[in-house]
Amino acid sequence: MRRLAPLLLVALLAAVILKYFVLSGGETKVVAAEESVPMAEKRLESMRKVAATVPGKEAVYKTAAAELAEREKGLIQAATVQQAEVALGELVQTIARSNGVDARGIQEFRDKVLNNDYGEVTVAVQFTCGIEQLVNLLTAIGNQPQLLATNEIHVNGGGDKQKRVSVRLSVSAAVPRKLLPEKKGASAF
């Protein structure tokens, strides 16, 4: 056993030398630096230029965000699309009342998606009024701080001596897109 131990040690040492030095592929490769100093300095300079534009971009972002917030004040704010439709109906009735028009009944509500960020709710009302009252009502709708628009207007002449007209008016308002439900099924043609 005493003679076998040194022989095993020599065999193990020979195997290690053979594996790491003879069979390792010969010469070792020297890894060159990927970038030279001038290239690193150019890259550093370009990174400094990019970093210098960050405060300007932040200022532009803050300005754009403030402008968007100002514009979105005109959206009808509600928790659901039904609440937005009712709020628009009440707004139209209030505007009509302030112009001496009795627009009590709401005929229909509609909603549709405009794009990824905004939707539209529409209210249709029917009433009878004088032509001057109608012109004043339409002007008042256009002067509201909310984003309102007249979608449809149908005017029929009346036979009475006061020259009153019968009007069916659809008014739309912009709302956040998140209020409108996702439409399931086939897409429109």
Description:
The protein is elongated. β3 and β4 (164-176) form a beta hairpin. The longest helix has 35 residues, at 37-71. The chain has helices at 4-22, 37-71, 81-98, 131-142; strands at residues 106-113, 118-130, 148-157, 164-176. The protein has a 4-stranded antiparallel sheet with strand order 1-2-4-3. 14% of the residues are buried. The chain has 189 residues and is of the alpha+beta class. The mean pLDDT is 81. It is 44% helix and 23% strand. It has 4 helices and 4 strands, in the order αααββαββ.
Largest sheet: number of strands, sense, barrel closure: 4 strands, antiparallel
CATH class of the largest domain: Alpha Beta
How much of the sequence lies in strands comes to 15-25%
Radius of gyration: 39 Å
* Count of folded domains: 2
CATH superfamily of the largest domain: Ribosomal protein S6/Translation elongation factor EF1B
Summarize model confidence as the mean pLDDT: 81
